[in-house]
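Format is chain and fold; as here:
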Amino acid sequence: MTDPWVALNPGADPAERVRVLRRAHETFTEVGTVPRPVRAVVAESWRRSARAGVGPDGSARVDLTDGDLWSYRAEHPLALVMPLFRELMGTFASDGEHLLAVCDAQGRLLWVEGHPGTRQKADGMNFVPGARWAESAMGTNAPGTAVALDRPVQVFAAEHFIRRVQPWTCAAAPVHDPRTGRLLGAVDITGGDGLAHPHSLGFVQAVARAAESQLALLTPIPAATDALQLTALGRDEALLVADGRTVRLSRRHSELLVLLSRHPDGLTGDELQCALYEDESVTPVTLRAELARLRRLLGTGVLGSRPYRLAVPVESDVAVVERKLGAGAVTAAVAAYAGPLLPGSRAPAVVRLRRRLADGLRAALVAGRDPDLLAHWAQAPWGEDDLDVWRALATSRPTAPVRARLAELETEQSAYPGAYAGWARR
């Protein structure tokens, strides 16, 4: 392949390519090896799918219906750009007998529109609004794999992991919040073999970029008195939206803002020093210098002292996950969880908060026994060695790959006790 992200080179015979891929898929499902003609992005996705316990004869589960679906879509940020998606892709989808689909960051389909006959065929595999098409639930597919990798991807015919999806070809590109960079979901075009062309991949990528540009125009710019917006999950350096600006913070400033956002009444210098530094030899002068730099970054009147506190409210992604988890909305909490809190931080208070948040999510997942949510966690970098989650997944989805991975982890744990609890526990 000249471009590893394009499924079919110009001039290639689609029928012959399908035959080669079907043989490769059979080999993988039977013996677990991927023959060379399969693209690396697809081979890696097949392996992730198998580790998540997805079977080649699986089917999509519908999570949201009726009023729940309408409410969720109405509140989703991508609802703002659905008119743009329809304008740019609607005619192309209808005339070409394709489908326009939009999913959220968890691979859950929110909108599926396009040619009526094609929609009817897609209904047979539950490619419908409200259905979960995450890679951890439905294996290799363009919208699910695009959000799993956070990059545009094209999936051709028998590259799909689940057999009933193999008559289809699709291309999808992720869409991000233009202010914070947070993944919002993906836009997808699904149809026949004719979509196995570089143009379809470039097309959805251009549409995704246009959506991000429109979101930047449609999303109100916060005034200087509005709450600070802090994004710290899954990032070593947090993003801060303040006074209409998006700033990438240093690691130390990230830690300071996370801690100050948790204590609206403020923290003394001694309390901050104990919370931040493992090394007791660090002097108060070092901390005061960091706070002085942070005060200049935030602007006048934002960071107070004696005690140190923020004079404006802060909305953080950590607080969002905690609220959803506290309300029992586990699916929504997992959707909002972009990864461990400041995973590279060794600040004692941040480490405790990171573990507490991850442990709360893990406990809810294990108790709920939802195989798709468990597979999503187990497939993520922070959950790939999480023994408790793999045990729960093996109970709710006891496929051979899941049992094999669990046996591997249990063997490793017996050799290295306590080493396999996942990134989030560290």
Remarks:
- The chain has a mean pLDDT of 89.
- The domain at 14-218 is CATH 3.30.450.40 (Beta-Lactamase).
